[in-house]
Specification:
The protein is α+β, with helices and mostly antiparallel strands. Helix content is 48%, strand content 25%. It has four helices and seven strands. The chain has helices spanning 14-41, 47-69, 108-112, 136-155; strands at 9-10, 72-75, 79-84, 90-95, 99-105, 115-122, 129-135. The longest helix is centred in the N-terminal third of the chain and has 28 residues, at 14-41. The two termini are 30 Å apart.
Length: 157
């Protein structure tokens, strides 16, 4: 499935901490919510829901570094390749001429460590791609490059 000779660019290793922080907050909230039936009714078997949710989020957090290392992108002559996934791998090729929107977003945790997400959308909703964990300068440079290349490719249509 790997295109031969592709020079993959990785996201920043700082993104691991950002992703873990997000899962830790969400996982804590969901685990506490899972224990509510136990606290309300006192029925001991219902505590298994909270325990199961806690274990599930610990497994997700443990796999986060490997999952983040699997995220990458490659600029080719006619398109941008994006890949992600460990078990279920996905590689998307987006032709430059089809890009309609290139957007940079930054959440509070990502902003604190100097990272951003680059999102670009095409006419087909299924090919919208989000590249997380890019240093802000790289995201801005990539956005400007993609917009410039997309404009030259659309002019030929």
């Amino acid at each position: 499935m790997e295109p031969p000779g592709t020079d993959w660019q990785r996201v920043s290793p700082k993104y691991i901490a950002v992703d873990i922080a997000g899962y830790a907050v969400f996982g804590t909230i969901m685990t506490v919510a899972g224990f509510i039936p136990f606290w309300v009714s006192g029925w001991a078997p219902s505590a298994l829901l909270g325990i199961a949710l806690g274990v599930l989020f610990l497994v997700v957090i443990a796999l986060t570094p490997r999952r983040v290392r699997a995220i990458g992108y490659a600029l080719r002559e006619d398109d941008l390749l994006f890949r992600r996934g460990i078990l279920f791998q996905r590689i998307v090729a987006v032709p430059y001429g089809r890009m309609q929107l290139v957007d940079i977003t930054r959440g509070p945790i990502a902003r604190a460590v100097g990272l951003a997400e680059l999102k670009f959308v095409t006419a087909a909703a299924s090919t919208g791609v989000l590249i997380p964990g890019l240093p802000l300068a790289d995201a801005e440079r990539l956005r400007d490059h993609l917009v410039a290349v997309a404009e030259t490719r659309r002019a030929g249509l």
